[in-house]
Amino acid sequence: MKRTLSFLLILCIALGGLWVLPNTDKPLIEEKFEIPEGTVGTRGTLHVGPSQTYSTIATAITAAIDGDTIRVHQQTYTERITIPSGKQLHLIGDGIGLTIIDGSNTDDVITINENGSTVKGFTVRNGGTGSDDAGILINSNWNLIEDVNVTDCGQGILIFGSNNTMENCTLYDSWYNGVKKDAKVQTTSLYTYGFEASLPAGWTTYESAVGGTNGRITTSTPNSGTYHWAMASTTSSMYKLNELIYHYTGTECNQVTFYSKDAGDEQEIMSSSFSGHENSDGVAISSDNTNWQLLWQAPLSFGTYSQYIFDISSFGLGTDFYIKFQQYDNYELGTDGIMWDDIGFNNIQVIPSNDNNIRNSTFNLNLDSGISINSGNGDIITGCKFYDNLDHGVDIQDLSNIQIKDSWFYANVDNGVYISNSNKITIQNCTVSNSGLSGIYSPPSMFQGFESALPGTWATWSSTGSGRNQRTNAYSPNTGSYEWMMDTTTVGLNLNELVYHHTGFSASTLTFYARETGEEVHTMPNSFSGTDYSDGIAVSTDNVNWQAAWQTPSSFSTYSKYSVDLTPFSLGSDFYIKFQQYDDNPTGTDGIFWDDISVGNYCKCFFKYDDGKTSCLISFFGGGYDKLIIICLVFWGCYCYIGHGTGCSIGFILCTYG
After folding, report:
1. Looking at residue 96, what DSSP letter applies?
2. Burial of residue 189 (number of CB atoms within 10 Å: 0-12, 13-18, 19+)
3. What pLDDT does 37 receive?
4. Which residues 6+ apart lie within 8 Å of 59 measured at CB?
5. Considering 45, 221, 396, 447, which has the largest number of Cβ atoms within 10 A of its Cβ?
């Protein structure tokens, strides 16, 4: 990626000048220090190394008891080690570049499973190269990582715990991030069924016609074991609907998994919701065994077993619900048919990582970001340097109350700081310069790509029973696997509506991608009440009285990006957006597809060089008070201009120039 010469400089005047650019060679500091025995661990000290009691760190860990210190003397140790649960241990090396732990390019080099442990004075290198591999994996809380270099690992340090401290460390040449902080996911299996025995209690079947297949078979290669479940019709070309229904009761279930493949089955589209039985292919879910909602649409072709995993928490089903696996077609297995295996019901608990401190550390040449924070709140980054990372200096997603202080960002290939869907982010007394894209960037606060079921802020309506108004993976989305489809299944006029209810903050910009498949233009009036049989997008403050915001073009057969300025409508922080399509034929003759919809505020900060060139300094979509706080902006040798779109709510920006 070409790096732009324009730069953002965010610097507290109190710094009194610019930091000297660092040497971009790999840091290999040889620093030997002595730790007085008894000052770290609360019990005894074990020694590892040449002419010591233990020749490997692992054997010393096995021999140690809770609270011991393990002194690891100067040498390269080719091993992978784990501080186990129940043993708070303190591993002390002779210093960076002197005591080296080499993971032989496999898995995690150091794993910390017990609270309150210490790793200090090491170089850690050559872990596995996957995104789940780490130089140091922290699965616990209140640990200290100090005076450590980590290099050539998938993630430098991977943190799943809380209240951990990392100080005076260098993380470089990671295959992914220097530090990644994420939530710990605990999966409890509640019930699994692989069809190895006859259907137990709770399972029932339904067939719309006699004959064909709707049962356990051993042929056609199960996903595992000897048996799987097959659904097909008969050789008489008779259309038949097959259903397999399970009534789940017990501990709250929020995840369903299954394996499925087809045997030539044509795709029959399942509606987003229906009552009773529907002639379609896929999986539906219900709280009462009558009113069903789409969970999974069978793809066009899936001839080998694949696993499908669904978060069902958005359906609000609790501890008592029904799930229906179904197939509809008109030939025997081999020409048509769908098979199922290894169905599972799980409870997933996500435990966030909170209140970690990263101080006085350096991050460079990591293939993704210096620090990637994807879980929790309350982290503080102080006195750190981020340069030449191939993505962002710091990547913040879905968080609040994160502070970055007294830190320096230089020549990161994308952005110095990237902020997504986060609140109360403080950036104070920092220098950000020569980023490839923006010094600080935040994307839209609401994004809908239809990759999962619609949340409760979205609603659908069709004027007739033949309206098709749903997620689909059967065609060609703009991105990902799914898009939103509007058409009718039979010839006859129908209106489809998809309505988003936006709350929480004022927004100035709507962006989306759309395409049509032969749709005639049905012009939307400038304003209307309730329903209007037209194509386009309308906005409203009360979900009754609508104003036209976007009229469909005469032809847009390939996905294009569209942007709508919402500020003229004076919508405030609580409003509705309605996407709609009106016509009389199925996709191919009529129909509109939508994808990648976003709502937010577009704000920019510019600075102007003396030669008159203007470069983007800060660009972010944001929402809500204290979305972003930037303190002490100083621009050397240029003019400072702050501009932002109407409706952009920011904690505050203080801009000065020198």
Report:
1. T
2. exposed
3. 41
4. none
5. 396
All CATH 2.60.120.200 domain ranges in the chain, comma separated: 189-350, 447-600
* Rg for the chain, CA atoms, rounded: 29
| pLDDT for position 426 | 76
Per-residue pLDDT of 4-52, as tens digits, reads 323 333 333 233 333 333 333 333 334 444 444 434 445 799 999 999 9
358 touches 178 (CB < 8 A): no
- Lookup result for tokens 């997008």: 537
CB 509 within 8 A of CB 563: yes
Distance CA 40, CA 118 (A): 8
DSSP 593-628: EEEEEEEE-EEEEEEE-TTS-EEEEEEEE--STTSE
Please state, in angstroms and rounded to a whole number, the distance separating the CA atoms of residues 628 and 620.
9
Give SS3 for 380. Answer: strand
- What is the residue-wise DSSP string for 416-450? SEEEES-EEEEEES-EEE--SS-SEEE--SEEE--
CA distance 555 to 300: 27
Average the pLDDT over each of 338-352, 403-417, 490-504, 529-543 and give the range with the smallest value: 403-417
Structure tokens at 56: 């490997």
CATH architecture of 189-350: Sandwich (2.60)
Task: Give the Cβ contact number of residue 378 at 10 Å.
Answer: 17
Residue 174, C-beta contacts closer than 8 angstroms, at least 6 positions apart: 135, 150, 151, 152, 153, 154, 155, 156, 366, 367, 368
Q: What kind of architecture, by CATH, is found in domain 447-600?
A: Sandwich (2.60)
- The CB-side HSE value for 563 (13 A sphere, CA atoms) comes to 9
For domain 13-185+353-442, which architecture applies?
3 Solenoid (2.160)
**Are 244 and 323 contacting, i.e. CB atoms less than 8 angstroms apart?**
no
The Cα–Cα gap between 212 and 232 comes to 6
Comparing C-alpha atoms, which of 458, 481, 399 is closest to residue 578?
458
As a whole number of Å, the end-to-end CA separation of the chain is 31
Yes or no: say if 417 and 393 are a contact pair by the CB < 8 Å rule. Answer: yes
With the C-alpha atoms ordered 465, 466, 468, 469, is the resulting torsion angle positive or negative? negative
State whether the Cα torsion 81-83-84-90 is positive or negative: positive
Determine the residue type at 21.
Answer: L
